């Protein structure tokens, strides 16, 4: 009887939360429509996405992990967002996705633990649930790091294309700003950074604009990009020697050698794997022919 009353109270609480959440969301939507027609000075109310009961409970129980206003790793998250190319527009969207991932892994882990208990393997249930909880907590950060790594891998080839275009334009007496604008229109990790550089240059000094671009590098240890940004900063601050074209040519040649070496390395790896698969295939064929005559039963 007590268990039934407990479940019923939980159901009533969940129903009341959903109803109040719907009413609140409707009022915010109506206010947003009023704001579209009339500008209300000092009113900064914004419509928010509807939050489920599980998300609200998780925020209330563990705010230090999922609440953007309380978390302590906001600096690291912002750095990962910059390096990965902003797959989430704001840190709030990232933490909302983190909540959804954690809830998914929590439900799967709970289901697996319950199945282990039913199968009389209760001793393994806590370990299985703990493993899924750990994976759910770290999956969003691992996803961002994987995106940053993929973006860093595409930086080299895209930078080679961008430097080739820029070298050609500067050699044709085109200004640096126009060359950067043409490169920014190409798209890609490096070209998008050049668009950011131009945007920052219009509102900040050359040093601050370059520093903002460095913060968005997917791999801060990329020496070629660092050298290019240093040369650009010197040209913008009128401390350069006027030989930016020669510097870009040297960087392009270095990048070309790097791309060729990486391609040769991947080709060699593919050849090694192909040779290994060929050896295994021949070995399997020989065993298929020999073993039946050796009296081995399958």
Which short descriptors sum up this protein?
single chain; 298 residues; flat; mainly alpha
H and E string: HHHHHHHHHHH
Main beta-sheet annotation: none
- Number of DSSP strand runs: 0
**Helical run tally:** 11
Helix content: over 70%
Helix-and-strand structural type: mainly alpha
Please tell me the overall pLDDT: 80
- Principal-axis shape equals flat
Poorly predicted runs of 5 or more residues: 27-47
**Strand-residue fraction?**
under 5%
Radius of gyration: 29 Å
From the N-terminal CA to the C-terminal CA, the straight-line distance is: 59 Å
Account of the protein in words:
The chain is an all-alpha fold. Among the domains are: 7-50; 152-250, no CATH class. Helices cover 77% and strands 0% of the residues. The protein contains 11 helices and no strands. The chain has helices spanning 2-37, 53-61, 63-66, 74-84, 91-118, 125-171, 176-184, 189-201, 206-215, 223-236, 244-290. Helix 6 crosses helix 11, helix 8 (189-201) packs antiparallel against helix 9 (206-215) and helix 10 runs antiparallel to helix 11. The chain is flat. The N and C termini lie far apart (59 Å).
């Amino acid at each position: 009887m007590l268990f039934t009353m407990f479940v019923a109270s939980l159901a009533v609480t969940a129903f009341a939360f959903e109803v109040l959440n719907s009413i609140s969301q409707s009022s915010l939507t109506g206010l947003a429509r009023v704001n579209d027609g009339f500008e209300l000075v000092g009113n900064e109310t914004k419509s928010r996405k509807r939050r489920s009961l599980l998300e609200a409970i998780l925020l209330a129980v563990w705010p230090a992990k999922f609440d953007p206003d309380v978390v302590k790793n906001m600096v690291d998250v912002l750095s990962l967002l910059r390096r990965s190319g902003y797959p989430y527009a704001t840190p709030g969207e990232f933490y909302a996705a983190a909540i959804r991932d954690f809830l998914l892994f929590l439900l799967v882990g709970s289901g697996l633990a319950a199945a282990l208990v039913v199968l009389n393997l209760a001793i393994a249930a806590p370990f299985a649930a703990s493993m899924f909880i750990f994976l759910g907590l770290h999956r969003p950060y691992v996803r961002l790091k994987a995106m940053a790594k993929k973006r860093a891998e595409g930086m080299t080839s895209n930078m080679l294309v961008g430097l080739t275009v820029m070298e050609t334009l500067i050699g044709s007496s085109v200004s640096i700003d126009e060359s950067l604008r043409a490169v920014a229109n190409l798209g890609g990790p490096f070209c998008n950074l050049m668009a950011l550089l131009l945007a920052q240059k219009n509102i900040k000094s050359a040093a601050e604009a370059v520093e903002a671009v460095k913060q968005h590098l997917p791999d801060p240890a990329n020496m070629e990009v660092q050298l290019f940004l240093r040369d650009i900063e010197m040209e913008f601050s009128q401390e350069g020697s006027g030989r930016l074209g020669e510097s870009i040519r040297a960087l392009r040649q270095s990048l070309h050698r790097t791309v060729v070496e990486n391609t040769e390395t991947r080709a060699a790896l593919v050849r090694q794997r192909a040779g290994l698969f060929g050896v295994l295939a021949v070995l399997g064929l020989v065993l298929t022919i020999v073993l039946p005559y050796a009296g081995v039963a399958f």
